[in-house]
Design goal:
Largest sheet: none
Radius of gyration: 18 Å
Helix content: over 70%
Distance between the termini: 44 Å
Strand content: under 5%
Order of helices and strands: HHHHH
Number of helices: 5
Structural class: mainly alpha
Number of domains: 1
């Protein structure tokens, strides 16, 4: 399915714009941050509505913000270092797919994992 998505994504972009890995990664980072923020709010709000007066949900919120900013900056820096010729080189497709997978895994996984850890700690210490 990932290959079909890549072909479709490439076909749409090749018709309208030249290949630019920097722009594509920047777009994915922006969307991943939106998804990450939505998940973070959804998961954290569920914990904040709980009946305990614990500071753990607030700590989780801080951890999530601290975790994502350096990760996104790392991805952005890596792709922005490409020259114009490299940014249009199809040989970077494999690296792009890898980084895109890692970015989305972090965007979806971090809020879920940290919220689960906070729930577990909450159960253990209450």
């Amino acid at each position: 399915m990932a290959k079909a998505w890549d072909r479709m994504f490439a076909a749409v972009h090749s018709q309208h714009k030249p290949l630019d890995w920097r722009k594509r990664m920047s777009d994915h980072i922006a969307w991943a941050l939106l998804v990450y923020t939505g998940l973070q709010i959804f998961v954290t709000m569920g914990a904040l509505k709980g009946e305990s007066a614990s500071l753990l949900p607030y700590f989780a919120l801080i951890m999530l913000v601290v975790a994502i900013i350096p990760a996104c900056r790392r991805f952005e820096r890596r792709w922005n270092r490409l020259s114009d010729a490299q940014a249009a080189d199809p040989a970077f497709a494999r690296y792009f797919r890898h980084d895109r997978l890692m970015l989305w895994a972090a965007a979806v996984g971090l809020p879920t994992i940290i919220a689960g850890m906070c729930q577990l700690l909450s159960l253990l210490f209450t």
